[in-house]
Amino acid sequence: MARISFVTLYSHVSKSSQRLVATYLAVFSALAFLSPPSLASTDTVIALLDSPVDYNHSDLSNVVAKDLMLSTKFIDDDGVEKSWWDLNQQEKAKIEKRIDWNTYSDELSVLNGSMPGEQVPGHEKNFPAVTTYVHGTHVAGIAISAQTAGVRMISFPLNTISDEFSLANILNFDAQVMREKLHRRMIAISNALQQHKVRVVNMSLSSSNSNALRHAEHGASEVQKSQHSAQFWRMAVADADIFASEIKWLASQNPNTVFVLSAGNQGIDLSQVPDHSSTLTGENILKVAALGASGVLASFSNYSSTLVNIAAPGADIESALAGGGKIRLPGTSQAAPFVTRTLAKIFAAHPNFSIQEAITELFSKHSYSDFRLRRAVKDSRALLLNAN
User: Fold this and answer.
1) What is d(CA 370, CA 295) in angstroms, rounded to the nearest whole number?
2) What's the DSSP call for residue 302?
3) For residues 235 and 215, is the Cβ–Cβ distance under 8 A?
4) Residue 258: helix, strand or coil by DSSP?
């Protein structure tokens, strides 16, 4: 059969019909020019709740859905409307001001050789700022890369360092004020997740009492920690409890989104040691433990044969470094985004999958059972390394 082109057909219609077609084409071309679709309707959107991300990094600049982050507005704690992109840049700049750049290279070297969450002697003052600065970008680089076809990322800065230590803030601590402040932020995040039909949320964050205590004590002197130890602990317990309950609320409000959480780095059995993070369970919540280099559970990783859903690589993981380059870091924070990335690929390949279908696909085709994990992970399940 002869191949008939649009030009051939166009030349055989009347002049009036040609003018009508030309008018339609002009209108559609103008509309396309005014509203270029920077995010394809078929793209899978994933999200990060983490510290600010350096989207100028070459690994991330082409995969961030900047248009979505710019167009999604919320009211911040000061009553000012801003976009999530603005907040990411603002929080990133705030951390950069706290870093001692004269010792930054030394801090990175220490990070490369330290255990997750470790406070290395001589680095206590600068360490929280540096670890927070690199965390979000490193996690983002694992969760997505320029080679992850059909997937785009947005992020919500949430886990930033405290302001300079203030005794007044400690003595005047009000758990209800903290809860209301965090809930307002969670409502804004929930609205964004629903607006952009986010399929997977990575949360390499911890709601443990110990992590919350370090956050509360940041910037305080040893004398102040001793004098106000009871108040610090009260703040930490309230912080961890409120954070866990708000994450649980967020997951409940978004039943069509999978929330991938890091299990934590305290090396404890979440089934035996009461901790707020052990309450974070649900049909759309996956908790991820970390595997060491030999494929067994990493020594620092939390675990539970009933509460942890899967284990993934978490030892010396190379990923993007804020400011450029790469860095190797360990932790369940690094394990979780491997699962996030696999789920993102599943949803990209099967856009109409429910979360149950995606999780079933994850477990049946992208994981394996290792008897060495039988006391650490539900069904001894580990992520297939070649799935990424």
Assistant:
1) 9
2) -
3) no
4) strand
Distance CA 20, CA 254 (A): 46
**Phi, then psi, of 157 in degrees rounded to 5:** -60, 125
Most trustworthy range by pLDDT among 21-30, 167-176, 177-186, 270-279: 177-186
Q: Using an 8 Å Cβ cutoff, are 181 and 77 in contact?
A: yes
**Alpha-carbon span 244 to 250, nearest angstrom:** 10
The amino acid that residue 86 corresponds to is D
Give Cα separations from 350 to 42, 154, 354, 355, 373 (angstroms).
10, 20, 9, 11, 30
- Over residues 66-97, the pLDDT tens digits come to 999 999 999 988 889 999 999 999 999 999 98
Angle in degrees, 0-180, between the axes of helices 355-365 and 332-349, rounded to the nearest 10: 110
Residue 106 — very low, low, confident or very high, per pLDDT cuts 50/70/90? confident
Q: Which domains does the chain have, with CATH numbers?
A: 44-387 (3.40.50.200)
